[in-house]
Amino acid sequence: MLKYLLMKNIKTDSDYKKSQLMMYAITMVLMIATMIALYMTAENLDFAFGIIIGAGGVILVFSVIFLRELLNPVKLHAARIKATDERRKQLEQEAWTNIGAFMMILLGILMIVTSCWKPVTFDFSKLAILFYAMLFYRVYKLRK
């Protein structure tokens, strides 16, 4: 099944479906592992439960939409066409390039601050907010 994850050219709807199922399984395992790690390391349990409940809601809604797409052949075909569209790939590449440039600038600033004054430390909540900000930027760039 790992071969479906690494396919470069998806030509049929069944290959697209298998590839999406593999990505779905990996995404769910990583999200649940992140929520468990957050719960085990959180100092402020109210904040951790808020993130976990929010992420759980996202997982639930995403799962329903994902399964409706996979079970409907028309929606599955439209999703495959959308995923293999070259214009969308260019927009996604541009979004990730902008995110990478932002992270590189942020890293440079943090290195200068660390070398001149004192070490900079981040708690999990600030890193989670930064991660979600990057994801929201990607969604904003790829909207229709």
UniProtKB/TrEMBL annotation:
<keyword id="KW-0472">Membrane</keyword>
<keyword id="KW-1133">Transmembrane helix</keyword>
<feature type="transmembrane region" description="Helical">
    <location>
        <begin position="120"/>
        <end position="140"/>
    </location>
</feature>
<feature type="transmembrane region" description="Helical">
    <location>
        <begin position="47"/>
        <end position="67"/>
    </location>
</feature>
<feature type="transmembrane region" description="Helical">
    <location>
        <begin position="95"/>
        <end position="114"/>
    </location>
</feature>
<protein>
    <recommendedName>
        <fullName>DUF2178 domain-containing protein</fullName>
    </recommendedName>
</protein>
<keyword id="KW-0812">Transmembrane</keyword>
<feature type="transmembrane region" description="Helical">
    <location>
        <begin position="21"/>
        <end position="41"/>
    </location>
</feature>
